[in-house]
Amino acid sequence: MKLAIGSDPNAESLKKTIIEHVRSLGHDIEDFGGDDPIYANVAFSVSEAVAAGSFTRGILVCGTGIGMSIAANKVPGVNAALCSDAYSAERSIKSNNANVMTMGAQVTGVELAKTLVEVWLQASFDANSRSASKARRIDQYAKEHQG
After folding, report:
1. Fewer CB in a 10 Å sphere around the end CB: N or C, the chain?
2. What is the pLDDT of residue 11?
3. 68, 107 in Cβ contact below 8 A?
4. What are the DSSP E strand ranges found in 8-48?
5. Residue of 62, 78, 101, 105 marked catalytic
6. 62 catalytic, yes or no?
């Protein structure tokens, strides 16, 4: 899988750990930076690259993961999910077809973050599942209201 990752300065250390971990799992990952204190700029860059199809999925990390999630979800074609437990990380893909994961470096420990990334990368969306119609409705609404 080809992944994009970015962070704000508060999460640079966790981002580097995630990059190493993702590579150890055999995936390609490109770092979109972590120096910009305006985290939305990084979120937009990663999300636009994912939405354009240049990357399969994206990972964004800031202090809480909330700001990155809000910013990423402004990009058409992106479904970003803030993940803080393994079940939610898995369901973000299986139920909601998320293509961007966000996490908080100040609220998520290193080992948990690595586990969340693993679970998220192993999950896949089934377009024939009972959740598919719900995910399609969200995408339909987004397309109807892009402005």
Report:
1. C
2. 97
3. no
4. 28-31
5. 62
6. yes
DSSP letter for each residue of 71-85: HHTTSTT--EEE--S
In sequence order, what are the residues at sequence separation of 6 or more whose Cβ sits closer than 8 angstroms to the Cβ of residue 35?
9, 12
**pLDDT tens track for 8-54:** 999 999 999 999 999 999 999 999 999 999 999 999 999 999 999 99
Looking up tokens 């420990």 gives 109
Nearest to 62 by CA among 12, 120, 112, 110: 12
The closest alpha carbon to 116, from 19, 18, 9, belongs to 18
Identify the pLDDT of residue 147: 62
Q: How many domains does the chain have?
A: 1
In the numeric block, which tokens belong to residue 81? 């999910």
Q: How confident is the model at residue 77 (pLDDT cuts 50, 70, 90)?
A: very high
Residue 67: give the domain boundaries. Answer: 2-144
| Dist. CA 19–CA 126, nearest whole Å | 27
CATH of the domain at 140: 3.40.1400.10
